[in-house]
Fold this protein.
Amino acid sequence: MAGKIKLGVPNLLPHARRLRDSVTWGMRSRLPSWALRKRVDGKVVLITGASSGIGAGVARELAEAGATVLLTARSIETLQDLAASLRDDGYQAFAYRSDIADLDDCDRLCQKVLEEHGKVDILINNAGRSIRRSIIYSLERFHDYQRVMQLNYFGAIRVAINLIPQMIEQGEGHIINVSTVGVQNGVPRFSAYLGSKCALEGWTMAAQNELLHTGISFTLMNYPLVRTPMIAPTRIYDYFPAMSEKKAVAWMCDAIIRRPKRMVTPFGLFSLGMYYVLPKTAEFIVNTGYQIVPEKFSSGNKGTRNEATGDNPASNVRPMRKRSGS
C-alpha cells in the first residue's frame, strides 16, 4: 500500500539533511522575500480556511512567490473572488469549497486536489472554530466541545492523513498546523477550543517523531490573539492586545521558509515556564484575571446581558481602553 514505511535498520541520512537544511534556510530567512520564492516556487500549497484573515493573506504571499495555491473554505463565493483576483494578477490559484468538519468532505477534497494537481507539497491547516464560554456555563452544551473538536482536530488530521502517503512517495512535504498560545497558558473560558488544539498538538508531535525520516516536516503555529474576522464577533477582544494580520502572515511565511518544529511568542514561552517553575503562582494570576473579567464585556452598558449565562456582568469591573487594530 502506498505510504507504508519499512521498519528495521534506521536511516539516519534524512536527519543529516534536516540539520543541513535547518542551517541553510535559517541563513536564507534573513532575506525573507527571496527565501520564500526559493522555498515555494513551483510548489502546490493547500490552505484551509482561506477565505479571509491569515489564510487569505498567506495565499497571496505564496502565490506572488510562485506557488500554486489551492484555497478551500465553506464560502465558495469569497474563495472564487480571491482566486480570480490572484489569477488576474498572473498567479496560479484555485478555489475548492469544502467543510473540513465533514470528514467525508475532507476525503473528497483531497482526492479532487490530487487528481487535478498530482501532489500537495505544503498543507496549511488554518481552518478553525473558537468558542469562548466558561465550563460552568457549558454543562448542558456538550455539543460545543464536539463541534470544535470535529473541525479543529478531526478535520485537520483527516486532511493530513489523506495527503501523507503522497508526501512519503515524493520524499518531501510540510504540514503546518495552526494552534494557539493558549495551549501554553490555559486561557480561561476556552476549554473547548484549547482541548481541540492540545489534541492537534499531541498528534503533530507524534507524527513528526514517526515521519521525520520520510522527509515530511511538521510545524505548530502557536499564534497569540490575531485581529482577524474570526474574533470580530467577540467584542471583548477589542480591548485586548492582538497580533496584526500582516505580522501573522509574515510569521506563517517564516515558518514555511525555516520549517521549525514550533513557532511561539516570548509570552508563550514565559507562560509555559511559569507553569513549570511556579505553577500555583501562575494559576493564581490567571484565575484572578478570570474572576475580574466578566463572561461578556460591554463598556458603558451595565445592563448588557451575558449571551452565555443570561446574567449581568460583574458590577465592579472597570471599563478598559479599547485597543487599535494595529
